Amino acid sequence: MTRIVAGSAGGRRLSVPPSGTRPTSERVREALFSRLEHLDAVDGARVLDLYAGSGALGLEAASRGAVHVVLVDAARGAVEVCRRNARALGLSDRVDVVADRVDRYLARVVPAATDAFDLVLLDPPYDLADDELAGAIAGAARCTAAGGVVVVERSSRAAAPTWPAPLVAVDDRRYGETRVWFAERPVD
Length: 188
Hints:
- By secondary structure, the protein is of the alpha/beta class.
- The protein has one domain (about 1-185): Vaccinia Virus protein VP39 (Rossmann fold).
- The protein contains 5 helices and 9 strands; from the N terminus they run ββαβαβαβαβαβββ.
- A 7-stranded mixed β-sheet has the order 5-4-3-6-7-9-8. Strands 1-2 form a two-stranded antiparallel ribbon.
- The longest helix has 14 residues, at about 130-145.
């Protein structure tokens, strides 16, 4: 069972796609969001959740006070589950669900400075090739506001991501088989 950990929808259940996704465990989400709240990266934030799956990360952010969340996934089943979860949690007024491949979405989205994302979450399939992940991180860097945070979640056996300028690595944490890396885009 997957649930929202805290915030306005805390404790509420999430549906998950029947196959093809690996929802982030509640324990990892609780630790991840504790770190993000310490960085003041959630409340009032514009959030981009790439490889959304069930939408658990982005919906957790919305539950904890993010003002706008975009969930992106290419799998039709995942997109439908994200939409259903946003409606069931009463968060659909702040959540947009985009059915597209991450690379295509990032290639066409170039937000103005006022529309850039304050928090970008990447939780790709563990078998995603390193060069594809590097492309997604580069795209995320272009969409991240000054002072914003980018998070990558992968297997603890995976190599650390390469952070393109202007992103700067700030932390990484290991939770069993999961490792989470954090980078920030410095304020100019």
